[in-house]
Structures are given as C-alpha cells and as structure tokens.
Design goal:
six-stranded parallel sheet, single chain, five-stranded mixed sheet, 231 residues, alpha/beta, 34% helix
C-alpha cells in the first residue's frame, strides 16, 4: 500500500519514521500541499487551514483519507462529511487505542452518574495551537449523547455564579513537552471517580493512523470512526 502523508510537521515526521521502520507500507508522498503525487491512501496530520486543498486532491484522484488534524470549524466538518459521500474517510481527533476505550467507558458510566458534576481536563505541550483539544471535545460530545443531550459546555470559569447541574466544565492546560493527558472527573457527594488517559509518546497516534489506513482499503465511501477501526 502506497501512503501519501499530508503535513510535514512533528507528527507527520514521526508517522514517516514508523512506516519506514516497519517496512510494510510505502511512502509515495510527504508534503504540505500535494501536486501530482499518487497513492492508495492519504494520512493527514497537517493544519486545519490545509484541509480544503487536501480534500479537493483526494476527490480529484479518488483517494481515501485518514484525517487526524483538529481545530477545524463546523463548515470544514460539513465539507468532510460531504466528501465522504465520494471516498471513504476515517475521521479521528485521536487515533490511539486507549483514548477510544476511554470513550466507551465514559459513555457507559455517565448515565449511572447523572447526579454527579462532570469536569474534563486536557493537558498538552506548549506548541499546541487549538484549545480545547479535539479529543476533549469528543469526550464532551460522547458524554452529552449518553445523557440525552441535556448537558451544555462551559470552557473554563470566570465571574461569580453557582455551578449548574447541567454543565460540563472543560479546562485546557498548556506547558512544556507533555504529549497529551485527558481526564474526565465525576464529582459526587463524598466520592470522586476519575477516568484518565496519558500519552507518553506520539508513536501511538502514528500506529493508530496506520491501522485506520489499512482498515479503509476496499471500504465503500462513508465516514468512519476509530471505534469501527478497532472493532
């Protein structure tokens, strides 16, 4: 399988190293903007501003995509969904196995903890551009879906007001070289339940993206998630 890597930053470079070391796949492109590169799959670890051009290239050449970039808005999401009508796409803000298991865990326990206060805390290195992280946003959406979409998001806190029982607080911390920590904390009366995942190496994201790329081969057009890849 020939892989086109979209983006030339830190994460893309790690992906390139992993693929070259394993030797199972072939890299046929490594660029921020494709011109005439050919391949069987695109794996994207770029910047959200580069997504429109990549999607156009994918559709023009009928190449499936694994999109791992975060920070895009609803308009860009709509373009991704529209593109999935023509080519198969795996869309994931976090491709590691642990986070996707964490998604399942919080979805299962949230309905049992309806009277608990819920907070989400995410910590990343000081070079990360978007806040909150795409993974933290996904955790909120998963919990909210499990609670019949009755919750609303509060990003940080400021001012004087009592906490609403329907709010989920989200907090972003940036510092040093931390790869990524995500915690969902359920605060009840006299007890606290915390579900936490820590990434100690970016290689886990590369390995997950490769797994997603292999999953897409032969798939019909559609929008797929890591949950389906891991199943």
């Amino acid at each position: 399988m020939k892989v086109l890597i979209h983006g030339t930053g830190v994460m893309s470079s790690i992906l390139k190293e992993v693929i070259e070391k394993e030797g199972e796949l072939e890299i046929s492109g490594f660029a921020d903007d494709f011109t005439n590169e050919k391949g069987d799959i695109i794996i994207d670890f770029s910047h959200f501003s580069r997504l429109p051009a990549m999607i156009d290239y994918s559709l023009k050449n009928n190449i499936p995509m694994v999109i791992c970039t975060t920070g895009y808005d609803e308009t860009m999401l709509a373009k991704i969904v529209e593109a999935s009508i023509q080519v198969p796409i795996v869309l994931s803000s976090n491709t590691c196995i642990g986070i996707n298991l964490m998604n399942d865990i919080v979805a299962k326990i949230a309905p049992q903890l309806r009277n608990f206060d819920i907070e989400i805390i995410e910590t990343h290195h000081n070079r990360k551009v978007d806040s909150p992280s795409g993974t933290a946003k996904s955790l909120f959406n998963i919990i909210n879906d499990a609670l019949d979409n009755e919750m609303f998001l509060v990003s940080g806190r400021n001012g004087l007001h009592v906490r609403d029982k329907k709010e989920i607080g989200m907090h972003s911390i940036r510092g040093g070289s931390i790869v990524g920590d995500h915690s969902v904390i359920f605060y009840g009366d006299d007890e606290i339940i915390e579900i936490k995942h820590s990434s100690t190496s970016r290689r886990i994201f590369a390995n997950g993206a490769i797994k997603a790329a292999k999953f897409l081969i032969g798939k019909k057009p559609g929008l797929y998630r890591m949950k389906e890849v891991l199943e």
